[in-house]
């Protein structure tokens, strides 16, 4: 990074401003030149969006951000810069003289990269001083987030230039795809342009609207493309028989009028070449392994979209809401023996709840206990409608004991006691079990316990929450459970405090001690 | 759902088996007919993959699964079924007689759907009895996961048939895209086929390999397509100036040789139509709002892929690893005053850490405290290398106090005391603050505390972990901190147990009480 020093950006549109954000977030100073008087405002706006995205993207401690200056001339921008990235409009007659001027103003060892989506680098570098250090680095919007950058050299570009450009892009979190030779539109834009032109035909013919075409991508094929490209996906679509089978089966459709683009003839030679390249991609992984990788990734992608209630994630959320409401109706309708611990919540250890040892992480124990608390509150009438009225229970104190590890994919169940309550407070004790509690010895299956003190509060927009009495109905239901469960006596492990055995107790006095030997197995 | 009764599936390949899984997971009985003797094994395999995916997809309680029978004849499959889904090879001369036979064997009110990717329903229904109930329902592999299904009627198909088919697909969690009229390859496969043929040309010309083409999708454009379609993405690429600006700017590239597919002429009329359809899609949302939605979704998609260390997620993971190791080196190198609480961990409240009130959820407090514990352990030498030797610290007991809420996006810091230790045990006390602890009043910024008892263990593959002494170096470092911090005295809130004020204490004796009034603000 230090080798590069400052980066010069020519053009401050959506792409140029995106570059500014990516470099600055990664601690590299940039100077932007764009004759448009709105360039500074646009750069600031994109920077703000990028900062917002990075705050969510990673918890890794950020590097101190680079400085961004918007300067008045090309010469000022490139002076002293070790790397120049041009992102002006997609016209050769605009780019070519600009790159030539930059090559004369820049340090002789500075790399000069163009963001062009498809113009040939051999032509872009033709008028440059030192054309061997001129290269294409084609990014994708949003430049500050998407990792792909195509690195393409022209006839005069040196191998070293391609390697140095790729190395810089890597330091700012990108994935350089280095092409061996130049072709119009490189690789990605050939595919993007084919989709775009086919889509324009569909609208032009009145066969589909922009909205329908976008749905046809984002609810289906687009989800897969975030995980794998077309060749790998089709290898998996061929099932265990693989790529050659897929080509044999779908070969004939190449002759059908399924797009206005005519395909090449699927000769023996082409089939052989594709099958061999597909084998190389698979790198020995079986269809089954790759299918599971695809599915795991698709599940995570859809769950990610669910967070934002968008696209395929909105479909998933609506689907789950139906399943949950069906289950809640069933739970309410089912008879519950209030004199026993209540079994209102079950879950399964999700793959992203585990650490590198495949053990459920500490915080996920508390998440499951929190869900069990929610289930109890709904059970006593503190449901969504109740909360919507500005009333809620907050957890103020929690005591957890970890008794046994549990692995990813395993089923969990929680049994809940209500140890006490008054107008404003509820004292709960949960026990978490592996599997269904009813089967097998309870002790062997017991994973953890959680003791909670909850406070009933009233909330109002813009005001701090205040402790307040729960509704008589909710309180009555809680008291009923306390009375019914009282004969069970205090549960093992309730009312404990933490201290070192034989050690100083910070609070003084007689204390309970953790039992290390039962704590792990 | 009950209206449909059983579903008949004709063809048990990757698509047919995928349908079997989707229907069965959603509680619908199916009968599959496929003359291939391997059909049963393939269906079982796909079912297993689907069950695995659904176990991760949602925590919503599943419905009791439908029964799957593989039967010997078409007649047996369709007898009594309310819905027939055909998924045999993509050849009209195979599909047409099969659909005709199914239409004669099926209930007169049964809907008959074809999974064809692009053959015209008017032709497929031509020989059928009751062609008005024959329709295309085109799904995407993996059928059990991807929500998109294109619903396309032929000339004879009734509107009611399209509506009933769409309703059934919705009940099994899909997103039906209902086309107004039929065209070859419908919508999605026109785009998929254009990409496929362009990709085949690239391989045929030797311009790119299957592996390069797949990278060009999955590290860039494919990520975006999981969120939005091409039209919406290009609207955003146009910046605040929007779709018309994008078309004006990129219109000329339609004439360039960027794909072998020629585009339509971008006439005034076509531009107007696209701009109007794009406005309809945006539905009043500004470019800025949509840009942030796109970015939020992209971040979540990349984080989802990071879980599996795949594609763009692997790039993100490697990038973060570099940031973390840089920060760890800096933290170790920085001077620390051991006589003060140690400030070794800071974080920011991520958007998916908050509840619907934008407050950080309980379990995320524990996650942050867990990360602070990890930072302390690394600080005393129990780092990755130490853990790799089969030694580790497990948390056996935790006591949390929640003092104040904190909102999404806010910065957090943790200060850590080591209250005691012996060979096998460490007693920790963390305080979590809003922002940097050094600024402002400590009490006002204090969000929560966590007291932990950790146990040092030895682990070996296939064996349960056992309590064991920590290394002399780690123990020495811990003891040094305990001695240095001892003059600070016991922290407020350590050594507490949970009880209802004035209530029965399950463990008996004098107890600390939660202070509800300080607990919320």
Give the helices and strands, then pairings.
The structure is a homodimer of 521-residue chains.
Chain A: E1 7-10, H1 14-25, E2 30-33, H2 39-57, E3 68-71, H3 74-78, E4 83-86, H4 92-105, E5 111-114, H5 121-124, E6 134-139, E7 148-153, H6 159-171, E8 175-178, H7 188-204, H8 210-218, H9 221-225, H10 230-237, H11 242-250, H12 268-282, H13 287-307, H14 312-333, E9 342-348, H15 362-379, H16 384-388, E10 391-402, E11 411-421, E12 425-434, H17 442-445, E13 446-460, E14 463-467, H18 472-485, H19 516-519
Parallel strand pairs in A: 1-2, 1-4, 2-3, 4-5, 5-6, 7-8
Antiparallel strand pairs in A: 6-7, 9-11, 10-13, 11-12, 12-13, 13-14
Structural commentary:
Two copies of one chain form a homodimer. With 521 residues, chain A is an alpha/beta fold. The first copy, chain A, contains 19 helices and 14 strands. Chain A folds into three domains: 7-186, NAD(P)-binding Rossmann-like Domain (Rossmann fold), CATH 3.40.50; 219-334, no CATH class; 338-488, Thiol Ester Dehydrase, Chain A (Roll), CATH 3.10.129. At the A-B interface, helix 2, helix 7, helix 8, helix 9 and helix 10 of A face helix 2, helix 7, helix 8, helix 9 and helix 10 of B. Strand 10 of chain A pairs antiparallel with strand 10 (391-402) of chain B, so a sheet runs across the interface.
